[in-house]
Task: inverse folding
Protein backbone atom coordinates (compact mmCIF):
# COMPACT_ATOMS: atom_id res chain seq x y z
CA UNK A 1 0.00 0.00 0.00
CA UNK A 2 2.81 2.41 0.99
CA UNK A 3 6.50 2.18 0.16
CA UNK A 4 8.71 4.78 1.81
CA UNK A 5 12.35 5.22 0.75
CA UNK A 6 14.98 7.45 2.39
CA UNK A 7 12.34 9.88 3.61
CA UNK A 8 13.39 12.80 5.83
CA UNK A 9 11.30 15.66 7.21
CA UNK A 10 12.34 19.03 8.61
CA UNK A 11 10.34 21.82 10.23
CA UNK A 12 12.57 24.76 9.36
CA UNK A 13 16.00 23.74 10.68
CA UNK A 14 14.57 21.17 13.12
CA UNK A 15 14.90 17.56 12.05
CA UNK A 16 11.68 15.61 12.69
CA UNK A 17 12.45 12.44 10.72
CA UNK A 18 15.59 11.07 9.10
CA UNK A 19 16.05 8.38 6.46
CA UNK A 20 12.80 6.44 6.98
CA UNK A 21 12.41 3.22 5.00
CA UNK A 22 9.28 1.14 5.46
CA UNK A 23 6.64 -0.80 3.51
CA UNK A 24 3.07 -0.94 4.80
CA UNK A 25 0.80 -3.76 3.65
CA UNK A 26 -2.87 -3.43 2.81
CA UNK A 27 -5.65 -4.72 5.08
CA UNK A 28 -3.40 -4.85 8.12
CA UNK A 29 -3.21 -2.71 11.25
CA UNK A 30 0.20 -1.07 11.55
CA UNK A 31 1.02 0.64 14.85
CA UNK A 32 3.59 3.40 15.35
CA UNK A 33 4.99 3.55 18.89
CA UNK A 34 7.69 5.59 20.60
CA UNK A 35 8.12 8.37 23.18
CA UNK A 36 6.64 11.85 22.72
CA UNK A 37 8.41 13.90 20.08
CA UNK A 38 9.96 10.90 18.33
CA UNK A 39 8.37 11.70 14.95
CA UNK A 40 5.61 9.09 14.73
CA UNK A 41 2.75 11.60 14.28
CA UNK A 42 4.85 13.63 11.83
CA UNK A 43 5.37 10.49 9.78
CA UNK A 44 1.66 9.61 9.93
CA UNK A 45 0.74 13.07 8.63
CA UNK A 46 3.26 12.69 5.80
CA UNK A 47 1.27 9.76 4.41
CA UNK A 48 -1.61 12.02 3.34
CA UNK A 49 0.41 15.21 3.04
CA UNK A 50 -1.10 16.94 6.06
CA UNK A 51 2.37 18.41 6.67
CA UNK A 52 1.81 20.51 3.54
CA UNK A 53 -0.31 22.73 5.81
CA UNK A 54 2.80 23.65 7.85
CA UNK A 55 4.75 26.33 5.89
CA UNK A 56 8.15 25.39 7.37
CA UNK A 57 7.83 21.66 6.56
CA UNK A 58 10.34 20.31 4.02
CA UNK A 59 10.40 16.70 2.89
CA UNK A 60 12.88 14.64 0.90
CA UNK A 61 12.96 11.03 -0.27
CA UNK A 62 10.07 9.06 -1.68
CA UNK A 63 6.61 8.08 -0.41
CA UNK A 64 4.74 5.85 -2.86
CA UNK A 65 1.06 5.00 -2.50
CA UNK A 66 -0.04 2.30 -4.97
CA UNK A 67 3.38 2.78 -6.63
CA UNK A 68 2.82 6.49 -7.30
CA UNK A 69 4.91 9.24 -5.71
CA UNK A 70 2.45 11.25 -3.61
CA UNK A 71 4.84 14.24 -3.50
CA UNK A 72 4.98 14.49 -7.27
CA UNK A 73 3.76 18.04 -8.12
CA UNK A 74 1.16 16.52 -10.48
CA UNK A 75 -0.33 14.28 -7.75
CA UNK A 76 -3.87 15.30 -6.75
CA UNK A 77 -3.67 16.03 -3.00
CA UNK A 78 -7.46 16.17 -2.60
CA UNK A 79 -7.80 12.71 -4.10
CA UNK A 80 -5.02 11.45 -1.81
CA UNK A 81 -6.82 12.72 1.30
CA UNK A 82 -10.06 11.07 0.18
CA UNK A 83 -8.30 7.72 -0.28
CA UNK A 84 -6.11 8.14 2.81
CA UNK A 85 -8.51 9.41 5.47
CA UNK A 86 -7.55 10.74 8.90
CA UNK A 87 -9.01 10.40 12.40
CA UNK A 88 -7.50 12.75 14.95
CA UNK A 89 -6.61 12.45 18.62
CA UNK A 90 -9.58 14.44 19.88
CA UNK A 91 -13.01 13.86 18.36
CA UNK A 92 -13.81 16.81 16.07
CA UNK A 93 -17.41 16.53 14.88
CA UNK A 94 -18.75 19.49 12.92
CA UNK A 95 -21.33 21.64 14.77
CA UNK A 96 -24.21 20.18 12.77
CA UNK A 97 -26.45 17.12 12.91
CA UNK A 98 -25.19 13.54 13.08
CA UNK A 99 -26.58 12.95 9.59
CA UNK A 100 -24.97 16.08 8.11
CA UNK A 101 -21.58 15.19 9.62
CA UNK A 102 -21.46 11.93 7.69
CA UNK A 103 -23.10 13.32 4.52
CA UNK A 104 -20.78 16.35 4.43
CA UNK A 105 -17.97 14.74 2.41
CA UNK A 106 -20.15 12.99 -0.18
CA UNK A 107 -22.12 16.24 -0.66
CA UNK A 108 -18.88 18.13 -1.28
CA UNK A 109 -18.04 15.50 -3.89
CA UNK A 110 -21.23 16.43 -5.73
CA UNK A 111 -23.67 13.75 -4.56
CA UNK A 112 -27.09 15.41 -4.34
CA UNK A 113 -29.52 12.46 -4.49
CA UNK A 114 -31.14 12.18 -1.04
CA UNK A 115 -31.71 8.43 -1.33
CA UNK A 116 -28.07 7.79 -2.18
CA UNK A 117 -26.88 10.12 0.60
CA UNK A 118 -29.12 8.33 3.09
CA UNK A 119 -27.66 4.98 2.03
CA UNK A 120 -24.09 6.29 2.38
CA UNK A 121 -24.79 7.70 5.85
CA UNK A 122 -26.48 4.52 7.07
CA UNK A 123 -23.71 2.28 5.72
CA UNK A 124 -20.93 4.41 7.25
CA UNK A 125 -22.63 4.58 10.64
CA UNK A 126 -23.13 0.82 10.62
CA UNK A 127 -19.50 0.24 9.68
CA UNK A 128 -18.49 2.51 12.57
CA UNK A 129 -20.71 0.50 14.96
CA UNK A 130 -22.73 3.61 15.76
CA UNK A 131 -25.95 3.26 13.78
CA UNK A 132 -27.94 1.33 16.40
CA UNK A 133 -27.17 4.03 18.98
CA UNK A 134 -28.14 7.03 16.84
CA UNK A 135 -30.62 5.76 14.21
CA UNK A 136 -33.57 7.47 15.92
CA UNK A 137 -31.82 10.83 16.31
CA UNK A 138 -29.86 11.51 13.14
CA UNK A 139 -31.11 15.11 13.15
CA UNK A 140 -29.70 15.76 16.65
CA UNK A 141 -26.51 17.77 17.02
CA UNK A 142 -23.38 15.63 16.87
CA UNK A 143 -22.08 17.67 19.81
CA UNK A 144 -24.64 15.94 22.07
CA UNK A 145 -22.89 12.57 21.62
CA UNK A 146 -20.46 11.18 24.19
CA UNK A 147 -16.74 11.39 23.48
CA UNK A 148 -16.56 7.78 22.34
CA UNK A 149 -19.61 8.19 20.10
CA UNK A 150 -18.14 11.39 18.64
CA UNK A 151 -14.93 9.53 17.76
CA UNK A 152 -16.90 6.74 16.07
CA UNK A 153 -18.86 9.44 14.21
CA UNK A 154 -15.55 10.88 12.97
CA UNK A 155 -14.60 7.39 11.80
CA UNK A 156 -18.00 7.12 10.02
CA UNK A 157 -17.34 10.51 8.40
CA UNK A 158 -14.06 9.14 7.05
CA UNK A 159 -15.67 5.88 5.90
CA UNK A 160 -18.36 7.77 3.98
CA UNK A 161 -15.63 8.90 1.56
CA UNK A 162 -14.78 5.23 0.76
CA UNK A 163 -11.07 5.43 1.59
CA UNK A 164 -8.47 2.69 1.15
CA UNK A 165 -6.49 3.72 4.22
CA UNK A 166 -7.48 5.16 7.60
CA UNK A 167 -4.80 7.03 9.53
CA UNK A 168 -5.50 7.29 13.27
CA UNK A 169 -3.48 9.64 15.48
CA UNK A 170 -3.94 8.37 19.04
CA UNK A 171 -7.69 7.96 18.50
CA UNK A 172 -8.43 6.70 22.02
CA UNK A 173 -6.14 8.88 24.16
CA UNK A 174 -9.04 11.19 25.11
CA UNK A 175 -11.49 8.33 25.79
CA UNK A 176 -12.39 6.23 28.84
CA UNK A 177 -11.58 2.48 28.93
CA UNK A 178 -15.05 1.36 27.74
CA UNK A 179 -15.05 3.73 24.77
CA UNK A 180 -11.45 2.70 24.04
CA UNK A 181 -12.45 -0.95 23.92
CA UNK A 182 -15.23 -0.16 21.43
CA UNK A 183 -12.82 1.69 19.15
CA UNK A 184 -10.31 -1.18 19.35
CA UNK A 185 -13.01 -3.73 18.48
CA UNK A 186 -14.04 -1.50 15.59
CA UNK A 187 -10.46 -1.29 14.28
CA UNK A 188 -10.17 -5.10 14.29
CA UNK A 189 -13.43 -5.29 12.32
CA UNK A 190 -12.48 -2.58 9.84
CA UNK A 191 -9.14 -4.14 8.90
CA UNK A 192 -11.05 -6.73 6.88
CA UNK A 193 -11.77 -3.97 4.37
CA UNK A 194 -9.29 -1.17 5.08
CA UNK A 195 -5.61 -0.57 5.74
CA UNK A 196 -5.27 1.05 9.17
CA UNK A 197 -2.24 2.91 10.51
CA UNK A 198 -2.41 4.01 14.12
CA UNK A 199 -0.16 6.12 16.31
CA UNK A 200 -0.45 5.08 19.94
CA UNK A 201 1.36 5.79 23.22
CA UNK A 202 -0.30 2.68 24.65
CA UNK A 203 1.94 -0.31 24.01
CA UNK A 204 -0.73 -2.71 25.27
CA UNK A 205 -3.06 -1.28 22.65
CA UNK A 206 -0.46 -1.82 19.92
CA UNK A 207 -0.01 -5.41 21.10
CA UNK A 208 -3.78 -6.02 21.14
CA UNK A 209 -4.80 -4.68 17.76
CA UNK A 210 -1.86 -4.40 15.36
CA UNK A 211 -0.35 -6.87 12.92
CA UNK A 212 2.91 -4.96 12.61
CA UNK A 213 4.58 -2.37 14.84
CA UNK A 214 7.13 0.33 14.06
CA UNK A 215 9.21 1.79 16.90
CA UNK A 216 10.38 5.38 16.39
CA UNK A 217 12.99 7.18 18.48
CA UNK A 218 14.56 10.61 18.00
CA UNK A 219 13.23 10.92 14.44
CA UNK A 220 14.50 7.53 13.33
CA UNK A 221 12.70 4.27 12.61
CA UNK A 222 14.55 1.93 14.97
CA UNK A 223 12.67 -1.31 14.34
CA UNK A 224 9.73 -2.59 12.31
CA UNK A 225 8.42 -6.14 12.58
CA UNK A 226 5.42 -8.36 13.22
CA UNK A 227 3.90 -7.11 16.47
CA UNK A 228 4.21 -10.36 18.42
CA UNK A 229 7.85 -10.69 17.37
CA UNK A 230 8.75 -7.07 18.15
CA UNK A 231 7.24 -7.31 21.63
CA UNK A 232 8.57 -10.78 22.50
CA UNK A 233 11.99 -10.78 20.78
CA UNK A 234 13.01 -7.27 19.74
CA UNK A 235 16.19 -7.16 17.66
CA UNK A 236 17.28 -3.72 18.87
CA UNK A 237 18.34 -2.86 22.43
CA UNK A 238 16.60 0.53 22.25
CA UNK A 239 13.32 -1.21 21.35
CA UNK A 240 13.74 -3.61 24.25
CA UNK A 241 14.46 -0.77 26.67
CA UNK A 242 11.36 1.14 25.54
CA UNK A 243 8.88 -1.73 25.64
CA UNK A 244 10.16 -2.87 29.04
CA UNK A 245 9.67 0.64 30.44
CA UNK A 246 13.34 1.56 30.97
CA UNK A 247 12.74 4.91 29.26
CA UNK A 248 9.95 6.85 27.56
Result:
Amino acid sequence: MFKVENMSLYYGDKKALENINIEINEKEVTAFIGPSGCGKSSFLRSLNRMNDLIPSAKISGLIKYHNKDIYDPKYDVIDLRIKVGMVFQNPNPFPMSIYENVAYGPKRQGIKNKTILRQIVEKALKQAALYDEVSERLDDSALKLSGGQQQRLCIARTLAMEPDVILMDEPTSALDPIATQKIEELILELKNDYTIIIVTHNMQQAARISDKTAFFYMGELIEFDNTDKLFSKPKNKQTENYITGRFG
Strands lie at 2-11, 14-24, 29-33, 57-65, 68-69, 84-87, 165-169, 195-199, 212-217, 220-226. The mean pLDDT is 96.
